[in-house]
Amino acid sequence: MKLLKMKIRNFKSLKNIELDFKGINIFAGGNGVGKSSVIQGLLLAKTTAEQLSEESNQIEINGPYNLELGRTEQILNFSATDDKISLEFQTENKKLNLEYEVDIYEQPHTLTLDNKKTKNIDELNNINFNYIGAERVAPSKAQFFDPQQKLKVGYKGEFTNHVLSRADYLQIDIVEQMKHKDGLERFSTQVEAWMRTIFQDFRLKYKEIKEVDMVSVLYGKEDSNEFIPQTSTGFGITYALPIITAGLLAVSGEQANNILIVENPEAHLHPFGQSRLGRFLALLSLCGVQIIVETHSEHIINGIRLELSHAKNTDNATINFFHQIQGETINSIISIKENGELTNWPSGFFDQEKQDLFELLKIKRGKIS
After folding, report:
1. Any residues with CB less than 8 A from the CB of 316 and at least 6 apart, and which?
2. What are phi and psi of 249, to 5 degrees?
3. What is the CB neighbour count within 10 angstroms for residue 116?
4. N or C terminus: which one in the chain shows less Cβ crowding within 10 Å?
């Protein structure tokens, strides 16, 4: 089951916006223009479905899914004509409606769900959300077990080490289409093989420290028997590992109806690695995982374009370019043609290099000082 459409009204800078979803959905645009707000809207809907009970229709806006929305007065659109926030979704099966009442004085940290205007919210419990935020955990010598024993890497990648260990123990098997030829059947070796497409000669191994409920992951090189702790490397490997791990879990027989949401996958990666990670995300989408990726990297986008063009499946992707007019978020739709070219290139969409090179050319010609 996939998301097909989403409408957001009166949420932060999103006065009234509608999005169409495909297999892989790219959110691009400048800082502070509303990209993250769309993702927060999705996560708010998901946490609403999980929090809602017969006893209470109060929804916390801070905590679940790493949401830190602050106070209700900060999330109600500044030009709203009423005190209501609404989210609408269209899935392959049903239409979902959620409407919240905002009381900035009596309920500064919760929203009240209007049960009369909310429909089919349980449908969200049939979608398996995997969310990896922009702020991920730094390299560490070990990570704690997930106390809930879920096969989820965590919003910050904080349970990635445990997932590698537990997935091997459970003999998690991924779909044939995503099995890397250089990896063995064991889940962790498949993660290792896909990581090697980003970091050449990469190896990993893990060690459970059961006395303290922790798992240590060590990194190595193919031409060496020596392994070193995460803390002896930079951030790039540790930031990419949760994405590869969560992606392969999403194409395993253990999970279905998956949506993988990744913010800033490019963080701390060389352009080569960014492009390869984009291609990996595109491959996941071709296996049925619905991908939502917020990025400031043209290399991530180009990797996606390349992989989908090779697969002759560019219809599987859409790019939402967000910008603002008088404080209100607007999204422009960019599609990918069969040959990988983009249908349009709005001003501000990864055109900074062109502008800088043009200015450098003028300096070279002595036209400006």
Report:
1. 22, 23, 24, 285, 286, 308
2. -60, -35
3. 7
4. C
Helix axes 187-196, 235-250, angle to 10 degrees: 130
Burial 200-233, CB ≥16 within 10 A → b, else e: eebbbebebeeeeebbbbbbbeeeeeebeebeee
- The backbone torsions φ and ψ at residue 298, rounded to the nearest 5 degrees and listed phi first, read -70, -25
Q: Give me 175's structure tokens.
A: 């779909």
C-alpha–C-alpha distance, residues 29 and 51, integer Å: 32
274: Cα within 13 Å, side-chain hemisphere:
17
The amino acid that residue 86 corresponds to is: S
Cα dihedral angle (203, 208, 212, 213), rounded to 10 degrees?
Answer: 100
- Between the alpha carbon of residue 292 and those of residues 89, 193, 229, 298, 363, the distances in Å are 15, 24, 31, 16, 40
Tokens describing residue 81 = 């004509």
Domains of the chain with bracketed CATH: 1-127+257-369 (3.40.50.300), 136-254 (no CATH)
Tokens of 129: 């959300």
Does the pTM surpass 0.85? The reply is yes
Whether 203 and 227 have beta carbons less than 8 Å apart is answered as: yes
Which token pair is 8? Answer: 């957001």
CA dist 278 and 293 (Å) reads 9
pLDDT digits (tens, 9 = 90+) for 192-204: 999 999 999 999 9
What angle is formed at CA 67 by the lines to CA 63 and CA 70, rounded to 5 degrees?
85
pLDDT in tens, 236-281: 999 999 999 999 999 997 566 799 999 999 999 999 999 999 999 9
Q: What are 112's strand-pairing partners?
A: 58, 101
Angstrom distance (rounded) from CA 297 to CA 278? 10
